[in-house]
Amino acid sequence: MSLTVDIRHRFAGFALDVSFDAGPGITALFGRSGAGKTTIINAVAGLLRPDEGRIARGKDVLFDAATGTDVRPQARGLGYVFQDARLFPHLSVTENLMFGSRYAPRDRPGPTLDDVVALLGLDAVLTRAPGTLSGGEKQRVALGRALLSRPRMLLMDEPLASLDGPRKQDILPYLERLRDGPLGLPILYVSHAVDEIARLADRLVLLQDGRVARQGPLFEVMADPAAVPLLGVREAGAVIEAQVLAHADDGLSTLAISAGQLELPGVRAEIGARVRLRVLAQDVILSKDQPRGLSSVNVLPVTVEDVHPGDGPGAAIALKAGADRLLARVTARAVDEMGLAPGMACHAILKAITVAPGSIGR
After folding, report:
1. How many domains does the chain have?
2. Is 212 helix (H, G, I), strand (E, B) or coil?
C-alpha cells in the first residue's frame, strides 16, 4: 500500500510545495532543519491542514482540499512515533504498551503484546517505570505502543535525534528488524542524520527549502553526484549491498559485492547474510592504473559515469562498480590531471578502516 502526498502550505516566510510517493518499506524524508520534514509528516498525520493538495493511502483519501475531505487523525490508521517518547510516567512499561491497543480496530490484524515484546527486546523492562529507562529503551516502548494500535502505516519523526551515538547504534538493529520482519508496515521516516537513512531507508526524498530536490530508490539517490550538496560533502557516499563470505581471526571479514571482494572490520552478521555498506565519497581514492604495493586490499575496477564539478575546488565522481554505484570526491585538479571523464576505466581504492561498524547494516 502506497502513500501519495501532493500538498502546498504557506507559513510566514516559508512555503511548502511537495509531491512524492511512499511505497512499501521505509521512505525517508531528509533535509536540513527548516526544509519542511516535520510539516509534511504532521500533514500526513492530520495534525496540520494544508492549504492545498491531496493525501491518500492507497485508495483511502485522507485529505483533499478540493473536496473538503479531512479525515480525523485518530481515524487515519497511522501510528506516530515522536522524537521524544511521550510515555505516561505513572504507568509501567506494560501499561504504556497496552495503551496503544485501546485504540486498535477490532477487525484489523496486528501484532500481539508478546509479538511486540519479542520484536523490540522489551521482556526485561516490562515492570519498570518510564523514568528508569534509558533513552533507547523509551523509544522502543514508544514504538511498541504505536505498533499495538494496529496501524496501517507508521510515521516516525526523528525518533533517534535525542540519543547519543552508542544508544542510537543499540536501537538501529530493532528498526532494521521491523523493516524486514513479517509485519510489513510501510514507514515514513523523518531524519536529518545521513547514517540513519543509509542503514534503514528503501526510498529517499531529499528536501530543500520546502521543495523536493531529489527522490527515488535509496541506492540511486545516495550515489547521485547532484545530491552531494544536499547530503553534505562529508556525509555524501554510496550505499551498496554485500554478502558475508568469511570471518578471519584478525577481526577482518570478507564480503562479496558485484565488483569483487572487500575486507572489512566490525562485521557482526553471520556467514551468508546480506548487509548494507555505506561508503563515504571522501574515503574513495581513484587510480588510473592497477595499484600495487598498497596496504589496502580493497581495490575495485570501476568506470566513470559522471563528473560533477562543485562550487569549490572539489568534484563528485559517479562510478560504476559491477552492478553497483560508488561515489568519489576528488579535487578539480585531480580531474584534469587524471583526465577523468565519462566512460573512463580506472580503479577505486577503499581502506578497510574507513567503513565504520556503524555504517554496516542488515
Report:
1. 2
2. strand
